[in-house]
Design a protein that fits this description.
The protein has 238 residues and is α+β, with helices and mostly antiparallel strands. It has a single domain, classed as Creatinase/methionine aminopeptidase superfamily (Creatine Amidinohydrolase, Alpha-Beta Complex). It contains four helices and 15 strands. It has a five-stranded antiparallel sheet. Strands 1, 2, 4 and 5 form a four-stranded antiparallel sheet that branches. A hairpin with a 6-residue loop joins strand 11 (200-202) and strand 12. The protein binds magnesium ion (MG).
């Protein structure tokens, strides 16, 4: 898991370094795929459920599952969510980060900051004996206290030999409820947070999830392990 997660994190970092005005999301996807394959791993998302690329790249009002395209060219002020998974020696790593492209508005920057911080609020609760609802409610309370909304239709998940495993890890919920966390569990915590209303819809391509109100959305994700010493973030670069 640690190796698969490290490769995922490094691929995500490479994607982030490429984010700048003028580059297409297709080019960023190519960087991600090449990086992962060079490590002897394979992109978890490529072909998953028929997904046609190695990374999901979701710009501005796109929440998740954006399909990289030659015609989607980044502009100054965009926010760019990149979601990357790598499969290595039988295990998956999964992580996401929303990068600012060039100079973004104060409002956009605040959304990125709050979403990233909400991920860490969730991670703090990922301790032995706590329950999934402790993670969920920590994310939700942090975000809603700052007047943003939590996407309901998509959630975090267990991750391991399969990319998506039980349990679901919603970004909303009730403290003390849900599956109990045990040592050795590995889960992906991934707040998807909207500037406006929480509602989303899927475009005609069957993948691209957008905000109904057209406002911005951000997405940060880590794969973490539950250990007796507390949560351990696996998707870190060395
Ligand atoms: Mg995930």
């Amino acid at each position: 898991m640690k190796d698969a997660c490290r490769i995922s994190a490094e691929a995500l970092r490479a994607a982030g370094e490429a984010v700048k005005p003028g580059i297409s999301t297709f080019e960023i996807d190519t960087i991600v795929r090449r990086y992962i394959e060079k490590q002897g791993a394979s992109p978890s998302f490529l072909g998953y459920g028929g997904f046609p690329a190695s990374a999901c790249i979701s710009v501005n009002n796109v929440v998740i599952h954006g399909i990289p395209k030659k015609t989607t060219v980044l502009r100054d002020g965009d926010i760019v969510s990149v979601d990357v998974g790598a499969f290595y020696k039988g295990y998956h790593g999964d992580n996401a980060y929303t990068f600012p492209c060039g100079t973004v508005s104060e409002a956009a920057l605040r959304l990125l900051t709050v979403t990233r911080e909400s991920l860490y609020e969730g991670i703090k609760q990922a301790t032995v004996g706590n329950r999934i609802g402790d993670i969920s409610s920590a994310v939700q309370e942090y975000v809603e206290a700052r007047s943003y909304s939590v996407v309901r239709n998509y959630v975090g998940h267990g991750v391991g030999a399969k990319l998506h495993e039980d349990p679901s890890v919603p970004n909303y919920g009730t403290r003390g409820r849900g599956v109990k966390l045990l040592p050795g569990m590995t889960i992906a915590i991934e707040p998807m947070i909207n500037e406006g209303a929480s509602h989303t819809r899927v475009l005609g391509d069957g993948w691209t999830v957008v905000t109904v109100d057209g406002r911005l959305s951000a997405h940060f994700e880590h794969t973490i392990a539950i250990t007796p010493d507390g949560p351990r973030i696996l998707t870190l670069c060395e």
